[in-house]
Amino acid sequence: MAGIRRCMLFSFLLFYVTECNSRLKKYNARPAVLATSGSPWPLPRNMTTTQVQYQVDADNFKFMLNTGTPSCDIIVKAFARYKVIAFGPRSETLKFRPNFRRRPNKENTVNQLTVRYVQPCDQYLSLESDESYTLVVTGNTASLTANEVWGALRGLETFSQLILPQGSGMYVINNTVIHDAPRFKHRGVLLDGSRHFLSVLKLKENLEAMAQNKFNVFHWHIVDDQAFPYDSIKFPNMSKLGAYDSNHIYSQADIKDVIEFARLRGIRVVPEFDSPGHTQSWGSSISNLLTKCYKNGSLDGSYGPVNPAEESSYNFLKSFFGEVADVFPDHYIHLGGDEVDFSCWESNPEIMKFMQSMGFGKDYAKLEEFYMQKLLNIISGYRKGYLIWQEVIDNGAKVAADTVVEVWKGGYIDELAKVTSLGYKTLLSSCWYLDYISYGSDWRNYYGCDPQNFNGTSAQKALVIGGETCLWGEYVDDTNVISRLWPRASAIAERLWSDESVNSVSAAEGRMEEHRCRMVRRGFDAQPMNGPGFCPVEFP
Amino acid sequence: MAGIRRCMLFSFLLFYVTECNSRLKKYNARPAVLATSGSPWPLPRNMTTTQVQYQVDADNFKFMLNTGTPSCDIIVKAFARYKVIAFGPRSETLKFRPNFRRRPNKENTVNQLTVRYVQPCDQYLSLESDESYTLVVTGNTASLTANEVWGALRGLETFSQLILPQGSGMYVINNTVIHDAPRFKHRGVLLDGSRHFLSVLKLKENLEAMAQNKFNVFHWHIVDDQAFPYDSIKFPNMSKLGAYDSNHIYSQADIKDVIEFARLRGIRVVPEFDSPGHTQSWGSSISNLLTKCYKNGSLDGSYGPVNPAEESSYNFLKSFFGEVADVFPDHYIHLGGDEVDFSCWESNPEIMKFMQSMGFGKDYAKLEEFYMQKLLNIISGYRKGYLIWQEVIDNGAKVAADTVVEVWKGGYIDELAKVTSLGYKTLLSSCWYLDYISYGSDWRNYYGCDPQNFNGTSAQKALVIGGETCLWGEYVDDTNVISRLWPRASAIAERLWSDESVNSVSAAEGRMEEHRCRMVRRGFDAQPMNGPGFCPVEFP
């Protein structure tokens, strides 16, 4: 009997191996890059995995909060959300065509993830939040441990990425132990609601994509020269007269909606109201706010940056930013301060007089510094922190010690060194302007850019709190925002989360392929990034 | 009484003008380019329009075939289709927020378009078809006259573009007279189903977009090195072993579906089965088809182009292309012939012997010519015409006089002169490779490229039958094909349809803005092309 059983086993193995091999040979297709399987993105700090696989009981799967872990809406809603993200809407999983039929094994089935964290939930993620977690999948138990609920959120995302669909509604997961925490605390995506309006639906779709890439800051560049879609409570004419039209406005309800959607995903919403430049659209409604420009001694009909010589400007700013401080719960507001064109100021006689009275001579950088410091004081008065673009510092302004300076221009390696040497917290975005598109696999360039790649002390390096990828809206709107941003932004997501040493493009490319197809399977128009190929599940 | 009425009229006018002006001033927004209103794209050959506007009765609108005009499914289905394209699904039009309320005027309401053409419908558009039409909208009658049903199709599209939504379900149309006909008869879009599979749904969405831009050839580059998704009847293993997987296959039913969808829109489907290069995926299933490469005198395991020295190759090609000739109704088949790498042929001893026996010496271009001529004879035997890429001619092959040569490489101005001097019909695609993306308003470059811009006789110029825009699939799939192609391809649509003199980018940019927003309103993800701005109707 033993002999026959051995023979049957051998025959089965022979058949199995031959079948497998011939199936592998069958599709002699040539994707440029072969996708990995079961590799999370971004790569966890510490991950060990074995070949041992467990069934995952999708139909009966439960996310459980450990007794003693303080519940809150964030975790409850995350459990519901990740049930769908991991297993798809159940009717859809039945449509997966089987590519490999595995015989169910009741002994090694994972049907639950136990989640525990220590701290009661904060309402909102902050710069200081702890996003670390430990994830253990062994035997048929899976447990996720964190200090704060934010770590649980990040761990849930990773867990969902470890679950591998096998077709016909079957899922497996490998024996895994992960200890993970982000390298940088500020991992942002900038979207531009002014150059082209982005619908609330698209903003939310993008926030979900961000969460699945562990981005944690939505830098909402909500107004600019071209349009003012922010529907101000105190100054309703700003959008009535400054938006493209009444269909391209973010109402207070919309803003609450976006903030809440982000909050539940552990994403901070940092609004940017850029001044004194980039404010043309403010002038439609706030008379005397913008500087009137002169030519050959008389008004030429055009306007420049905010008029820094008028007390009315600061009265307005104080009132306006009081509202902004209320509407946006994050501790930080981005105040802009970039690309201030001095020529209108230089042309204006009242400003010339003001310069003289202040003893600024002809140094308009001093006038800009004067404006920025008054503005920063206004914001401090509301007990908010602020981010500014690099020019403010470049032009010599002295700003409060806890200012976060965002480096966006060329020559950023030297700039990072300079800004951190002055003691400011710093963000890098220069190498991550995703509005600049080009042919080919450009994610590799983004992947290779490191925010701590400059000459400096470890104290300086520690001042780099992270970075942001910017998708300026000149050529971006609802029609192309998702495919333009994803999965290119994923390269930056990993650069900001994973360890510094995780920088090999060749090691990453198969994982990027897997990650892009994962995003596609989850319903995002994440575009091809690696040359010819395909995703196993890509058409609804 | 007269005085009071005059006063009331004056008050109304004053109010009206003030309201209008203040409304114009209200949105002091700054799109980079302001859209025109009521300008069709592509620009008709001859169009006069006046300020006189008529209401269009959307609810009761009828497309009518004039008595005596032979009906057919093409026109019947077009009538149904254009009812929706012009007026939207009726429930949606009620959602349009009113931006300008016009008082209905029953006297000047257009509620019908009478269509007449002379010739009975051909089943399929051909290179020789007559797409000319005349469109007249005066008083409250609208009439569309053409020689063939294809002109009626083109005229219906133009008519639909003249109908301007006013909000609240109201539409107007200007007094218009149009005489129109295309400058070039072959106006094509190439899509690549091999580097990335494109779903049938996306192909059809794109065919509809093409029809709305008056493109009339879908150049279906359906197979290539990386994958063979074409499900052959005679050689089913070609897709079984050559496709990426079984979910990435074009079945015979799919192909019929695409051809029919195109047919009804007056779009020819020209398949490309490129050889002898670009055939790696063919080798999975057709043994001995591809040349075996040698290194240092022994087989190195890799394969090269189709083996031109084996009679079995031609037996296969004859059988395979017999099927292709049946499956694809268009008179033309694209045979490729580009980028043939001679190195594998050079390494193979059997081929070396063959070269000697044929007296080709070491001139592999002669071997390529030998192959191409045998292939062309096979196709001629099926009474089909063929298109080929330029290399076949560049390498000195002599091909049949009615061959269409597609110029795709750099140096195309000289190449156009050369190919036409040899007497071949010619297509230009070199300057229209839309897979090459870059930041900004690149449609302007595509718009500026003219297929007859070379030194030659008028006989030579007449041999340029049109052009094609190519969207190779290395970085394109369902996630981004529509936004990458549109509205950039619209620039080429106009270049190929409209008069040569319609070449001013500054005159076109406002119309391009209108056209892009029209495509967006009609449901296509046509991306922003002109810098900051917005579309009046853009979110579902």
TrEMBL record, chains A, B:
<feature type="disulfide bond">
    <location>
        <begin position="72"/>
        <end position="121"/>
    </location>
</feature>
<feature type="active site" description="Proton donor">
    <location>
        <position position="339"/>
    </location>
</feature>
<dbReference type="GO" id="GO:0016020">
    <property type="term" value="C:membrane"/>
</dbReference>
<protein>
    <recommendedName>
        <fullName>Beta-hexosaminidase</fullName>
        <ecNumber>3.2.1.52</ecNumber>
    </recommendedName>
</protein>
<dbReference type="InterPro" id="IPR015883">
    <property type="entry name" value="Glyco_hydro_20_cat"/>
</dbReference>
<feature type="signal peptide">
    <location>
        <begin position="1"/>
        <end position="22"/>
    </location>
</feature>
<dbReference type="GO" id="GO:0005764">
    <property type="term" value="C:lysosome"/>
</dbReference>
<feature type="disulfide bond">
    <location>
        <begin position="517"/>
        <end position="535"/>
    </location>
</feature>
<dbReference type="Pfam" id="PF00728">
    <property type="entry name" value="Glyco_hydro_20"/>
</dbReference>
<keyword id="KW-0378">Hydrolase</keyword>
<feature type="disulfide bond">
    <location>
        <begin position="293"/>
        <end position="344"/>
    </location>
</feature>
<dbReference type="GO" id="GO:0030203">
    <property type="term" value="P:glycosaminoglycan metabolic process"/>
</dbReference>
<keyword id="KW-0732">Signal</keyword>
<keyword id="KW-1015">Disulfide bond</keyword>
<dbReference type="InterPro" id="IPR025705">
    <property type="entry name" value="Beta_hexosaminidase_sua/sub"/>
</dbReference>
<feature type="domain" description="Glycoside hydrolase family 20 catalytic">
    <location>
        <begin position="184"/>
        <end position="499"/>
    </location>
</feature>
<keyword id="KW-0325">Glycoprotein</keyword>
<dbReference type="InterPro" id="IPR029018">
    <property type="entry name" value="Hex-like_dom2"/>
</dbReference>
<keyword id="KW-0326">Glycosidase</keyword>
<dbReference type="GO" id="GO:0005975">
    <property type="term" value="P:carbohydrate metabolic process"/>
</dbReference>
<feature type="domain" description="Beta-hexosaminidase eukaryotic type N-terminal">
    <location>
        <begin position="40"/>
        <end position="162"/>
    </location>
</feature>
<dbReference type="GO" id="GO:0006689">
    <property type="term" value="P:ganglioside catabolic process"/>
</dbReference>
<dbReference type="GO" id="GO:0004563">
    <property type="term" value="F:beta-N-acetylhexosaminidase activity"/>
</dbReference>
<comment type="similarity">
    <text>Belongs to the glycosyl hydrolase 20 family.</text>
</comment>
<dbReference type="InterPro" id="IPR017853">
    <property type="entry name" value="GH"/>
</dbReference>
<dbReference type="Pfam" id="PF14845">
    <property type="entry name" value="Glycohydro_20b2"/>
</dbReference>
<dbReference type="InterPro" id="IPR029019">
    <property type="entry name" value="HEX_eukaryotic_N"/>
</dbReference>
